[in-house]
Amino acid sequence: MSDRNLTLFDRAKAVIPGGVNSPVRAFKAVGGTPRFITRAQGAYLWDANGQRYIDYIGSWGPMILGHGHPEVLRAVQAAVQEGLSFGAPTEREIELVEEILRLVPSLEMVRLVNSGTEAGMSAIRLARGATGRPKIIKFEGCYHGHADALLVKAGSGLATFGHPTSAGVPPEVVQHTLVLEYNNVEQLEAAFAEHGAQIAALMIEPIAGNMNFVRASVPFMRRCRELCSQHGALLVFDEVMTGFRVALGGAQSLYAQAIPGFAPDMTVLGKVIGGGMPLAAFGGKRAVMEQLAPLGPVYQAGTLSGNPVATACGLATLRLIQQPGFFDALAARTRALVQGLQAEANRAGVPFSADCEGGMFGFFFLSELPRNYVQVMASDAARFNRFFHGMLQRGVYLAPALYEAGFVSAAHTDADIEATLTAARAVLAELT
Ligand code: KE4
């Protein structure tokens, strides 16, 4: 039988760079042919050959309810009947923002946009405009979208500013971006000691899903908060991935349990808040947010921002994840997956570590959980790639890169977890 995925990939590569509209989808890190998806339902995807997969990517986070939730589809179909886009304000944008404010108490105002990149880019511009300062701190291994100022890797050693990670980004565009090691308090202290008065914002993924799954330690996060407050810099939480995913209140609600009174100054959101449609957001305290056009001097805009169909999808999603017990059940199922994978790896004698929070998980072919980018990249990439393909052949669709996180949805059943662990047992046995 001909492989429809391969045929489609060849056709796609003729007209779309790399055959994909986002690089990670091309399977370059793991090799092989990407699966062209024809439909999805619940916890499952079907590819162009009709092969079914248990889906642990969930569109890279948005599909927390599973694919095709009937109440979400009903809300979207009703919105479509009223009109696709107006370029004018709607009540539903107010309803969605009011819902976000209720669930994320650190926020006083929010602006809706179309992607996490747009939200992160706008948050940085706003932080610089509101503080009048040029410099920003980010951490190696954290990804905040592809805005120029954020496509930067660590300079050689501390205090030297970042170097572009992408062609087309002139060095002067990233000259004010300082890249530090995640979880490194000493570097943080030194950076603020040297540049504190110039720092507009520190932007961080509180649980770094772009390093697969690395937690910011509580002591490290406490120092981020203290040093930002001490020097008048804004602490910006990039919760595009963790927001409404690791807990109903996002990662910030977990740090607020560990650090009394903890809250970021700004938050960037995406993925789950759109429920699979193009929708993201950034927000913060009123005094900062009112620096935005049309009120203030910081410009930001978007033709489809707050799109009426996307807001219907996001609002339905946010309402459904507030059902009693939703996150307890999701977290329990995710833990069952992660603990089961660890047990199977131990049984096979394969060095392995894993972690999870809410409906987000990560695993490493390392015996200890990594704490920063360098440690993550020391993972056994060849072993990861063999595991990835072994699972894919057995109908389990994991993230096609060792630095990406995984996601469980409310539609995943105990039987799906069991089937995944059965596949893992077979594949891990081949990896020893
Ligand atoms: P988008 O522009 O892709 O909507 O969001 C950018 C972004 C911002 N912040 C965080 C923490 C993110 O994880 C992302 C996007 N995540 C990637 C997966 N690592 C999306 C998948 C892709 O790039 O195709």
Automatic annotation (TrEMBL):
The keyword Transmembrane does not apply. Signal peptide: none annotated. It is an enzyme of class 5 (isomerase). Its main location: cytoplasm. The keyword Membrane does not apply. One of its GO terms (cellular component) is cytoplasm. Keywords: Cytoplasm, Isomerase, Porphyrin biosynthesis, Pyridoxal phosphate. Pfam families: Aminotran_3. The modification N6-(pyridoxal phosphate)lysine is found at residue 271. InterPro entries: 4pyrrol_synth_GluAld_NH2Trfase, Aminotrans_3, PyrdxlP-dep_Trfase, PyrdxlP-dep_Trfase_major, PyrdxlP-dep_Trfase_small. It catalyses: (S)-4-amino-5-oxopentanoate = 5-aminolevulinate. Pathway: Porphyrin-containing compound metabolism; protoporphyrin-IX biosynthesis; 5-aminolevulinate from L-glutamyl-tRNA(Glu): step 2/2. It is found in: Cytoplasm. Homodimer. Belongs to the class-III pyridoxal-phosphate-dependent aminotransferase family. HemL subfamily. This is Glutamate-1-semialdehyde 2,1-aminomutase.
